[in-house]
Task: inverse folding
């Protein structure tokens, strides 16, 4: 069987270090027709021929502006001054482009080690929600929830502990006393990170997970995420599991994500949970295929 260590070693051999951090694999830019089919209710209902090519192009341009604006707003909300928003036109590929350059152009987002910037490729996202999740992933990976949300995150952890049943409280208490010198915040964060493992997640009561998710969204709203909810931006169960896991990994080893092994581990976890560039967009692809057949 292929072990986790083996997957990390394979990644290290396949993608050697360069000035840019390992990217989150993507499929490149969405065409005007694809963006129109995914986001235009009229085209989704009646098919691609419901709009002219000129109309589909105009709709796609507006959608990309909305995506860029949402990424900029989120970066400001999180006080991130190192986010670079790029379009395909800003990074054209020549015939002599290297394999690494082609991968960076296809990626949804990545960390550029040389510039220290989080790069978001706008054209490679299907909608606002997709782009917001990419930036949130990158921000959490590099800074962790505690640095991003400050005391709001500690309040979230306190509320999770209060909402837990006696069994979970006992597990967190044991961690706090045995491993963290009575620090219940870190112990609670480790418990939440453990939910990225399927065995732990599957044995947790659904009602408690619902409380965790509600408390997390409440924390996001407390720093100004209400506007994103209005755009239809949500977090799936696996997205939240990934974010909580990624944040705790950052706490354990700050900066590890910037290393090849750290990023390989991150990509493996994304693939396992089917989030980020490994998200399941089955309905989206089926919708495009159906429209093309009309």
Result:
């Amino acid at each position: 069987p292929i072990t986790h260590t083996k997957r990390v070693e394979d990644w290290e051999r396949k993608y050697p270090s360069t000035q840019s951090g390992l990217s989150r694999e993507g499929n490149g830019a969405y065409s005007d027709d694809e963006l129109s089919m995914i986001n235009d209710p009229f085209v989704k209902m009646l098919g691609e021929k419901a709009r002219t090519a000129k109309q589909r192009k105009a709709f796609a341009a507006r959608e990309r502006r909305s995506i860029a604006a949402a990424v900029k707003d989120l970066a400001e909300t999180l006080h991130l001054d190192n986010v670079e928003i790029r379009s395909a036109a800003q990074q054209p590929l020549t015939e002599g482009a290297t394999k690494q350059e082609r991968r960076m152009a296809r990626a949804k987002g990545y960390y550029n080690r040389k510039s220290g910037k989080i790069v978001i490729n706008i054209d490679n996202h299907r909608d606002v929600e997709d782009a917001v999740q990419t930036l949130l992933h990158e921000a959490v990976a590099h800074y962790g929830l505690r640095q991003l949300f400050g005391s709001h995150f500690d309040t979230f952890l306190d509320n999770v502990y209060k909402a837990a049943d006696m069994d979970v409280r006992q597990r967190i208490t044991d961690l706090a006393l045995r491993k963290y010198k009575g620090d219940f915040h870190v112990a609670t964060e480790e418990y939440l990170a453990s939910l990225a493992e399927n065995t732990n997640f599957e044995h947790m009561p659904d009602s408690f997970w619902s409380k965790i998710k509600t408390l997390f969204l409440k924390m996001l709203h407390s720093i100004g995420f209400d506007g994103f909810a209005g755009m239809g931006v949500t977090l799936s169960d696996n997205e939240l599991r990934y974010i909580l896991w990624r944040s705790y990994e950052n706490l354990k080893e700050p900066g590890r994500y910037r290393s090849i092994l750290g990023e390989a581990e991150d990509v493996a976890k994304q693939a396992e949970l089917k989030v980020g560039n490994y998200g399941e967009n089955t309905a989206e692809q089926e919708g495009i295929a159906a429209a093309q057949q009309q």
